[in-house]
Amino acid sequence: MEPLARALSVARAGGRRVVVPYLMVDRARRRRLGPTVRAFADAGAAALELGFPFSDPIADGPTLEAAADRALEHGTSWSDLLEQLATANRILPTAVMTYANPVWARGLDRAARELRDAGATGLIVPDLSFEEAEPWRRAMTRAGVALVLLAAPAASALRVGRIARGSSGFLYLVSRYGTTGTGRRPAAARALAPLVAAAHRAAPRLPVLVGFGVRDPESARDAVASGADGVVVGSAVEEARRGGAAPRELGRLLGRLVHAVNGADALA
């Protein structure tokens, strides 16, 4: 089992659901990355998604799109990603989330090796379809980096099962139509539950995490009521960062979600 799946499965084996926060790489924020990731770890985060900015982030809503724009304006480069990845992965198992073009520009094999050498445990590519994933899977497998695939809420149970069998690290189940962080809540648990069950049947050892629209304890509880193994939260974290929240405050935000998905009352 690769490191990312192992980190998530430890919690799953103990009957706990996980929360994975997302942070955008930004050259201007590099000094705060370590303290923020440590605050997440102290709050109970199981892993981290580190986003690399792209100029046309089709899956991202206004908050993360603006964060990507700012990062690019600050001159954030692939080298910044590798530097910050190495920092983050010393604290939490870290997967990189970016779009296909920046990886193609490096070359699949070269990018896979660079990500591995910097400590990446996984790669998530929102605009990579299941049908186009095989070359990516081969390159990442050679480097020992998990390729995390996404499944849409409109997918049939059969297709979700196929995607789960082709994914590694975890399956990223998109909770609803639209982009991240638009204020719309995830689909009801009863709508997601058949897809989660299909993924678990097809790949019993693969964790399933729900993302898009998870932003507070209520939406996090709703997401894991589907039977999912945890949630990914991005826009809510970025909004707090943009509002000037210190690492300790970001840790408290995450801690409330960790408590919520595990059946505890949200922290005040």
3D architecture notes:
There is one protein chain. The chain is α/β, with parallel strands linked by helices. It has a single domain (3-261), classed as TIM Barrel, CATH 3.20.20. 49% of the residues lie in helices and 13% in strands. A nine-stranded parallel sheet has the order 5-4-3-2-1-9-8-7-6.
Helix content: 40-55%
User: Could you name the ranges where pLDDT drops below 50 across 5 or more consecutive residues?
Assistant: none
Counting structural domains, the number is: 1
- Structural class determined from secondary elements: alpha/beta
- Give the spatial strand order of the biggest sheet: 5-4-3-2-1-9-8-7-6
Query: CATH class, please?
Result: Alpha Beta
How would you characterize the largest beta sheet? 9 strands, parallel
The ordered string of helix (H) and strand (E) elements is HEHEHHEHHEHEEHEHEHEHH
CATH fold description? TIM Barrel
Q: Strand content of the residues, in percent? A: 5-15%
* Contiguous helical run count: 12
Write out the CATH superfamily name.
Aldolase class I
